[in-house]
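Work through what follows:
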Amino acid sequence: MVDKVLSAEADTAPSLGAVSAVHANPHHARRWWILGVLGIAQIMVVLDATVVTIALPTAQRALGFSNADRQWVITAYALAFGSLLLLGGRLADLLGHKWTFIVGLIGFGAASAVGGAANGFGMLVFARAVQGGFGALLAPAGLALMTNTFTEAKERAKAFGIYGAIAGAGAGVGLLLGGVLTEYASWRWTLFINLAFAGVALVGALLLLHHQRSAHRPRLDIPGTLAVSGGLFSLVYGFSRADTDGWSDTLTVGFLVAAVVLLAAFVLIQRRSAHPLMPLHVLLDRNRGAAFISIFMVSIGMFAVFLFLTYYLQLTKGYSAVRTGVAYLPMIGVLVVVSAVVATQLGTRVSPRITVPIGLLIGAVGMFLLTRLNLHSTYGTDILIPTLILGVGLGITFASAPNNSTLGVDAEHAGVASALFNVMQQVGGSVGTALLNTLAATAATNYIHSHATTPGVQGLAAVHSYSTAYWWAGGIMAGAAVLCAILFRSGVPHVDLEARSVPAL
């Protein structure tokens, strides 16, 4: 009998240790309120990439800048955000996630206020670049706080499902919000609205978050920081330039070559550095690597929907900005619900090797169905069903990918892993912009040349170009499904709570 009791106690020891580790977390009692704060900050960062897009034509007329300059309102944000993310993630690990998050909120809000009050093009672009820089502090710090706040498997799956849904739906919400604010208020409110998000999140962060300093205080890897920041800047700028100046442009080629050289140098530096900016084991874990690939690929697919479907609805079907945003609501609603359900019901029971590829394949089906759109397609039968299917696929993918991208990472590296998640989203969007726009433009040109005598050839060429982009986006998502099925490990991943580094207070 005594042996049985001792055996039972031994069997329960790990779970008791896990429970103890969970409740040693200073954020545990307030974890769901903290999730709300982090969610508000995340949706602000994600929607800011699209909320300004709808307002650009109005802002251009108000401030009098040219079509050639217009792209810089978007590109300035993307360049600063994408190139500084890994540095922001590392600073969050070194200085503490709470105060990095707070500084990011304050800076992002202040830059938004400057942009909203801009009296000229230069002031607006400067504000957008500063927004991107503070976003690079804010985004990885927020995801790192999620990683270290939710450590119990079921709660973590639920929390990351909600967080993933926000990351997936934020761009669509930005399109709707941008349309409403531009049409009924002013283009300036697409920037001023961030003050409300940042203010609420700031109050919540000050009241709810504890400062957790790193148990180790290594020096910042300056050579690695310069190499990766320069490499990511060159990569994002190269793809942005390819979108406007073509792939054969000398500067486009030069920046893309520089990106390859600098990022290769970064890997070599990390292998030899005593205090690497991004320890390679964070990236090379199979599950994390597969999660990063899925986010990168799905970001390309999402771009195809939000860009080309917006073009189709507004230019081909004559929708207003507000009506276009409303057209996305069913897809966003499905994405959020599916992500939450999958995360809570399947996240701790089914391997990501099953859920992520299935999500990507369903998303690819939705893309392929969108290729059937023509000049006379209707919303109810031809647009709604494919976008709902796409919402299901994106919801399943975003329920699993953010969780697995940081699962098992030590607390001292949570910021870097979180930054990598955001890098994949940002670079995926930049690659999607350049690649799919180029493919669509080529398809439209070829169509016009081969159908020169067809009535309404311009409109038909535009619809054909959108279809081409959907085919490629669907193929990319299907290819990502195959890669993820190969790379993800079998079984449900678990975190050994007692093995994780817990930051000192």
About this structure: The longest helix spans residues 414-450. The CA atoms of residues 284 and 338 lie 29 Å apart. The mean pLDDT is 82.
